[in-house]
Structures are given as C-alpha cells and as structure tokens.
Design brief:
Length: 135
C-alpha cells in the first residue's frame, strides 16, 4: 500500500535561516552598516598595505561590498603568535510570502554565511551581530 503525501501545499510553512524583516532593503542595509560600524568594521578600501599589517596585530575587521546587497567581511585576530581569520558573507534576499494572494507581502532575509575560519568564532560573531541588529 502506498501513501501519497502533499509536500508543498499552499498552506505549508516555509523555513528560512537568517534574519527576516518587512522593512525596505535600504533600511536593512543601513542597519547592517550601523552594526558593522558598531563592531569597528571598516571598508577594506580605507586600508593601506602597511596599515593593514599593523592593524592585524590590533584585531582588524574589514568589509567589502561585492554586490548591491552583498558584503564580504573579514575579522583578523592575533592570538598565540598566530593570525586567525574569519570571513563571512552577508547577503540580502527578497522573499515574497503568500504568492497565492493578490496582495503579497514582501519580506527580506539577511543571510550570514561563513566563508572561511573557525566555526565557533563565526558563531560568536553571528551572535553578536544578531544581538545588535535592531530591525
């Protein structure tokens, strides 16, 4: 006997990982930049090579815009005579909910992805970011 399951009906719950918001994309990105500034992330373009080497010793944090709604961030820390690097990607996605209705609500999802580095350092950075994010 076989059973038929409807996996994707209109009323099924969707799962998303990340920070969801109904605010505009510009408002969300402004908040992202505010949080990055709060944690002393600075634009990669503002560093000279010599200054970058000096800042590694102090625990530099950089970000670089790689698309209209995407940033690559890098955190450099110096521990036990070694430089530890954690790279994350922040990307904003547009999500349309309730597509079956004529008026659908537009939401945005901010995804935080680990590109390189230690998992626990990444998780700590995400927790701090999520706690500071105010939308």
């Amino acid at each position: 006997m076989t059973q038929s399951h409807e996996w994707h009906d209109e009323n099924s719950r969707r799962w998303y990982l990340g920070l969801m918001s109904a605010h505009s994309a510009d408002t969300i990105m402004t908040e992202v930049f505010r949080v990055l500034k709060r944690f002393r992330f600075v634009s990669e373009q503002s560093f000279s090579t010599l200054l970058r080497v000096s800042l590694i010793m102090l625990g530099a944090q950089e970000w670089k815009k790689t698309g209209p709604y995407q940033l690559r961030c890098r955190r450099l820390t110096h521990r036990e005579d070694q430089v530890h690097v954690v790279k994350i990607v922040l990307q904003l996605f547009k999500i349309n909910e309730n597509k079956s209705q004529k008026k659908h609500k537009t939401s945005y999802l901010l995804d935080i992805k680990k590109a390189e580095g230690e998992t626990f350092t990444f998780m700590e950075l995400c927790a701090k970011f999520i706690t500071e994010f105010q939308l």
